[in-house]
Amino acid sequence: MRLDTLAGETFLRQDEGAPEQGARLSLVTCGEELARLLDGALACNFSHEEPEQAEEGSAVNGFLRDCAEFCDVTGLPEPLRVEMEEYFGQRLDALWRLDWLVFGGSWDAVLEPGEPPLSGRMVTLCLARSDSPSVQMDSRLRRSLERFKTAMARVREAPDDEDGPGSGSGGGLLH
User: Disordered: where is this region (predicted)?
Assistant: First the structure.
């Protein structure tokens, strides 16, 4: 499986040129994909748009800190790796709920000078708001994003009715 697989037709363009030019980073959609991308990376490059609210800043900074720490640990036993995949999935979900998307990509590179030169996989992660001009997604995925936002708004607006359909279901969250 490629580490930089596209999710639908969504990508982040990293330059100001025409869509056909410049590097594209793929949408990272699940914790397993993110852990696979970061695992064994020789170096990481992180960037993000400026958060507008404190909650966004906390989520973005915490996410990037966790990614950097995960890169520093190699050879995790399988149970810990699965736990990290689940944790990353929760962090991605938290960012998604704030309308932030995570894009990533990797490539092989050689770091010189050195005897011998050091080679390995480099990773880039960029976080952007879903409405950012640098985010390009096809109409199908944009509709999915709008449906998700609508559903989340309904969940947040649901009254705490003890006799209602959401009672006893963990705060009305959809599963």
Answer: 153-175
Cβ-count burial of 114 within 10 angstroms (0-12 exposed, 13-18 middle, 19+ buried)?
exposed
Give the global pTM.
Answer: 0.67
* Short-list 116, 81, 132, 92, CA closest to 7: 92
Is the CB of residue 26 less than 8 Å from the CB of residue 6?
A: yes
User: pLDDT per residue over 110-121, tens digit each?
Assistant: 877 777 888 888
Distance CA 20, CA 157 (A): 42
Instruction: Give CA–CA dist 56/1, Å, rounded.
Output: 32
Residue with tokens 């050091």: 118
Q: DSSP strand E in 112-154: where? A: 118-129, 135-136
Task: Report the alpha-carbon distance of residue 143 to residue 146 in Å, rounded.
Answer: 5
